[in-house]
Amino acid sequence: MTGTEHPDDELLGRVFLSRVVEPGDEVAGRWVREYGVGEVVRRLREGAQALPGVSYKRWDGLRARGLRAEPDRDLAVAREAGVRFLYPGDIEWPGQLDDLGDARPLGLWVRGRASLRMWALRSVALVGARACTEYGAHMAATLAGGLAERGWVVVSGGAYGVEGAAHRGALGSGGATVAVLACGVDRPYPRGHTQLINRIAEQGLVIGELPPGDHPTPSRFIVRNRVIAALTRGTVVVEAAHRSGSLVTARAAQRLGRHTMGVPGPATSGLSAGVHELLRGDTVLVTDAAEVVELVGDMGELAPERRGPVLPRDLLEPRARRVLAALPGRRAARADEVARGAQTTEDDAIARLYELRSLGYVERHGDSWKLTRQAMMSVHAGRSGC
């Protein structure tokens, strides 16, 4: 906003541009940065000389849109639907969206009572396939529920499949969730998620760049993904085929320096092929909410150490474990043979064998020693990694 523009003019100007300019238009974003909202609006309305970077044909198309734009009416319709308009400089504007540079939204239409700026500070994106498997839906809901229980906001796109499961998982845990739509926030899309999106608006936030009543298009879904990526600390892809739009979100997150994470699936599943491709690069493999929080959270928010069950033999002193491991599985052995296998002296091996006998691991047969049946099971389990 230039020094001569009134806040109301800035608001009306950005609402006007949200009706005229497509989301993510970097040329228009550069106009706003270089000339200011007021000058861009004036040129579009008055038919003055075209701004640089577009053809005359495109300029005429933008001007035609501008002739039909009614920002006062859009604001009135929005207020009637319980929708507010945020723009850069507003106290509720999330500063991380500024990382998008000239592709930053001109403004955001918001349904819901919470502060978008505060919620975005501790948020994670969960995205994935629309035609997901039961596994994908389960993992999305479980991850979202776990994140919500840890006080994290789950951000997604409100679509069928993984995204709907993520929103439901967060809501089901009594947590916070944000749906970023590729259409006007007053007209839920997809229609089959009308009830879900209305519930998100009541308990969370529904946001979008497009003015009231605007419809989604394939290109709008793609550019919408940059907002999901920029708004959050990291993006988790649950299931995605090679051409999934979820990969666009993940790659946008990588360009912005955000964390990217992927949930692995079966190697034979085409719906996990895109995730696996990400995991071959810089994307981090995650399997639960604790691992996500360890990556995106504050210092000290560590996931629990993953390890198999502790076997009784794990509690033995290291030299005793070496002697136990040196005993043959199916026959008795003399102490000197055990000592060689354990790389110790015969006297030390004998001392350890007596210790192991007292614990029920070995039994003596004359001058030889043999594993007990119980010990044989323990040793074989340890050797096989079961």
From TrEMBL:
GO BP, sorted A to Z: DNA-mediated transformation
Domain Smf/DprA SLOG residues, every copy: 85-295
Annotated TM spans: none
Pfam families, sorted: DNA_processg_A (PF02481)
SUPFAM superfamilies reported for this sequence: MCP/YpsA-like (SSF102405)
Record family assignment: Belongs to the DprA/Smf family.
PANTHER family assigned: PROTEIN SMF (PTHR43022:SF1)
Protein name as annotated: DNA-processing protein DprA
Species name: Streptomyces sp. R11
